[in-house]
Design goal:
- This is Pimeloyl-ACP methyl ester carboxylesterase.
- It comes from Nocardioides massiliensis.
- The protein has a single domain, classed as Alpha/Beta hydrolase fold, catalytic domain (Rossmann fold).
- It has 322 residues and is of the alpha/beta class.
- 52% of the residues are buried.
- The radius of gyration is 18 Å and the shape is globular.
- The longest helix is centred in the middle third of the chain and has 22 residues.
- The protein contains 13 helices and eight strands.
């Protein structure tokens, strides 16, 4: 990847702004040239932010998130791929039906989106809950997944001892999220967003206002409690990403984690990369649960290089980090 792409520029400008104590650049400036689309996917009105041409890349956000999770990445990746950052089912401006929310339901909605855009296969990049959905798709629908990238992915339960970690992490995420979504205010939303990152100064007023708009939508308030509970305190054991299930993943895979992730420890992510056959591993420093937003220059370079290596079939991708 070149060093002067939009993602690299975004990262350098962002860091200069923070170093000088000024406001970070608007993520709408960073998304100039992208487009917002609404389609019917699996019978549901679905919003996406899109850019570029080439092989299909789908970006999936975390619990209670939305497509702007990928604001600092869509334009950069769009230089080489056709990129679609989704509002997943029950999130953002996508429909929020009164259903029992599950990983399968979210995964089938993604498959419906691929059908809607005419894509037989896609490279799927998932962060947190999105990583869980992406992993489920790679296991249960391998014919539709060209490659998998899990970014601080949720849903991992690699052994019996890991069950306690999974429960503890689920409770932590659930409590942090519920405080924001049940009575959303500028303060509660800011607290939730600052919890996602290593450096809280990265959370701008613009981002807080954007998410507050999402959280105060009547359709989201109607399902928020059930949605959050489904994936935190009451996940379906049959949908957890166990070692046996991960070992069935056959597509090229990158597991990307951070040293300061506030949910699952990086050692668990590392172990997942060892269970998935042939998976690559990358560990970022000085980043929390949202490395794609907090350190976009490094994230874009690593992800772009991995995806290009998959497309080129050269296998010449060098793992980095510790």
């Amino acid at each position: 990847m070149t060093s002067n792409g939009p993602g690299q520029l975004a990262g350098s400008v962002l860091q200069r702004g923070l170093d000088q104590g000024s406001t970070a650049p608007s993520f709408w400036v960073e998304m100039l040239g992208t487009e917002v689309q609404f389609r019917t996917a699996d019978g549901r009105r679905t919003r996406s932010i899109e850019s570029g041409q080439g092989e299909t890349v789908v970006l999936l956000h975390g619990i209670s998130g939305h497509a702007e999770t990928w604001a600092r990445n869509v334009a950069y990746l769009g230089q080489s791929f056709r990129v679609h950052a989704l509002d997943m089912l029950g999130h953002g401006f996508t429909d929020k039906p009164p259903i029992e929310y599950s990983i399968q339901a979210l995964g089938e909605h993604v498959l419906g989106f691929l059908d809607a855009i005419g894509a037989q296969r896609a490279h799927v990049v998932g962060q947190s809950l999105g990583g869980w959905v992406a992993g489920w798709l790679a296991i249960h629908h391998p014919d539709r997944i060209a490659s998998l990238v899990s970014v601080t992915g949720a849903g991992l339960q690699l052994n019996e001892a890991g069950a306690a970690i999974t429960a503890r992490v689920g409770q932590k995420v659930g409590e942090a999220t519920m405080r924001a979504v049940t009575s959303p205010t500028l303060a509660s939303v800011r607290t939730r967003l600052e919890w996602l990152v290593h450096d809280p100064t990265i959370i701008t007023d613009e981002l807080v206002q954007t998410r507050l708009q999402m959280y105060t939508r009547p359709d989201f308030l109607a399902i928020a409690d059930q949605l959050v509970t489904s994936f935190t305190t009451g996940p379906d054991p049959l949908e957890l990403l166990t070692s046996e299930r991960l070992s069935r993943i056959a597509c090229p895979t990158l597991v990307l984690w951070t040293k300061q992730n506030p949910t699952m420890p990086w050692s668990v992510g590392k172990r997942a990369s060892e269970v998935i056959p042939g998976a690559a591993w990358y560990l970022m420093d000085r980043a929390g649960h949202w490395p794609q937003f907090e350190k976009p220059a490094e994230f874009n370079a690593v992800l772009g290089d991995f995806l290009e290596s998959v497309v080129d079939r050269t296998g010449a991708w060098s793992t980095g980090g510790a």
